[in-house]
Amino acid sequence: MTGTSNGTPGGTASGVFSPRPGSAPLARQVAAQSSIEARLMLRNGEQLLLAVVIPVIVLIGGVVAAKHVDLNLDHRPIDALTPGVLALAVMSTAFTSLAIATGFERRYGVIKRLGSSPLPRSGLLAGKVGALLAVELFQVIVISAVAFAMGWEPHPGIAPVLLGLEAVLLGTAAFASLGLFVAGVLRAEATLAAANLIYLLLLAGGAVVLPASAYGPGGDLLTLLPSGALGEAMRDALIHGSFAARDQLVLLAWAALGTVLTARTFQWE
Question: For residue 239, what are the domain limits?
Answer without folding.
Answer: 26-265
